[in-house]
Amino acid sequence: MPRAYLSASGLTAGEIADRFSMSKPAVSQHLSILETAGLIRREKQGQFVHYSLIENNLVNTLNGFVQEVCPVSRPIKKESQARVRAKELP
């Protein structure tokens, strides 16, 4: 499910972990697996590491389609899009 949270913009590991009832090290391990699989990338920005989807990936493209119809992923994707819109406001 972390990929659904990354559908519209990148997040830090802490921001992702806050949405799950898992420890931050467990979330970081899952993110590492997704990165190794070529599904997400990480970028160090100051003291934080931001994770984002790799757009040109067939699995991510198919997952994006599924998120449009999945009753669980759809609200998560909307939350991600709303977060992006809120950042764009002056």
Automatic annotation (TrEMBL):
PROSITE patterns: HTH_ARSR_2. Residues 1-73 form the HTH arsR-type domain. Keywords: DNA-binding, Transcription, Transcription regulation. One of its GO terms (molecular function) is DNA-binding transcription factor activity. SMART domains: HTH_ARSR. It comes from the Bacteria. PANTHER family: TRANSCRIPTIONAL REGULATOR, ARSR FAMILY, TRANSCRIPTIONAL REPRESSOR SDPR. This is Metalloregulator ArsR/SmtB family transcription factor. It comes from Rhizobium redzepovicii. The lineage of its organism: Bacteria, Pseudomonadati, Pseudomonadota, Alphaproteobacteria, Hyphomicrobiales.
